Amino acid sequence: LNEAGETVVTQWFERARFEWHPDKPDEFKVLLGLLGTELRHTAAPSTTSIIGVEVNQGAAAATAAQLRNAQPQLVRYNAIMWSSVEATPGARNWANIQAATDELALLGHSGAAPLVIVRNTPAWAQQVTGSACGPIKPAALDAFADFMHDLVSRYSVAPYNVHTWELGNEPDVGSNLVAGDSLFGCWGDPADPYYGGGAYGEMLKRVYPKIKQADPAAQVGIGGLLLDCDPTHPPTGKDCQPAKFLEGILRSGANAAFDFVNYHAYSYWSPTRQDWDLASATWQDRGGTVLGKLDFLQSVLQRYQVVKPIIMNEGGLLCYPGAQPCPSDRLAADQASYAIRLYTRSWAHGLAGAVWYTLNGPGWRSGGLLDAAQAPRPAYQAIILMSTLLRGASFMGPLTVPGGEGYLFRKGSTTYSVLWTNSDAPVTVPAPLGIRAQFDARGQRSLTSATNLQLDFDPVIVEAQP
To answer: Which of 254, 270, 126, 245 has its CA nearest to residue 193?
Structure first.
């Protein structure tokens, strides 16, 4: 089985492998195998999965069974509030977050690794008066570090088992743009060329050692970056200054004070059947919202010679308010299609995790995997399908689909080809050798031994055993 998922006759030499392709023109019947490509793709096989979901505060009990059934690798939770615990300096009242404590215990039993956001600065520690989502006073950074030490000590043990922390949520949003008690933001400073990233970096340098002291296994992530637009291709009327936030963190010398980078990447539904992610106006030049933002972050890290895992920790296909109506049945069906695309692209391009916002329904802008009664929508079934088939699989490489995309995974002796087109125009491609079955985005399995596959906009997963 070669890197394209084809079973071919081979002849091996000390430094090369020749492959026989009798179906190709004479001059291409004997080809050199792509050994370097195979080595690159098999050097770091996945032992679990990259699939994650978010559960809103107050929804853990109602979604506990659905969370276990989905088998995600990550479950993100927003949030533990510093302001609720320590409204007065040095006086901590943990009973004020008992509801969150109970929910973290539920998440700790789900089988998924909790990723917990810590946010909201108490009034006495706010750099910008009235802005709980904003920066912390320099004089209060040690107090926050002490709080994080005690927080991590409490929740890193059973039954919570929290070892992954996220400090803030969309810190690259300016405090002048959102309310002070916003769920996201808001360290952003328009007066700073790096939009406040340096101040956030100083916080990381103060807090990170205390977290590691409390739990050496802890992993600390930058608050998920909004990344409103690409500064190398700014849209009309925008300078995309907030995208400088990560660079500000790195310039502050905080590269050793965090373990991974987070970012957010939403797409918005439209009735036109074209890939919603790739059609993003602000990230189209880099390959769409998910991969374009990833490419940008990687370029910033590379410029500073920093290597960190990256997680897309908020994403999904949403209904944009004020635009065309989103018929619930069409939106739900297309969310299943998008879920396959989102997780497959994320896995194939090396993301350490990808989190759908949210598991609980109906969700922000109708984005929930469950409906208002917490019953499964089609996208939930798509996630179960991917968790079932691909958990423990290794990504082997891309596959050629004219006008679309294909990705090959292997688990043991079984291969899974994930295939789709990026428009409604159907295409026909050869079926992989040893094809056994085909799954649609809702998990419906059909046995097949076809020699050709007709693909369209809705992804399919093809199971084969060459």
So the answer is: 245
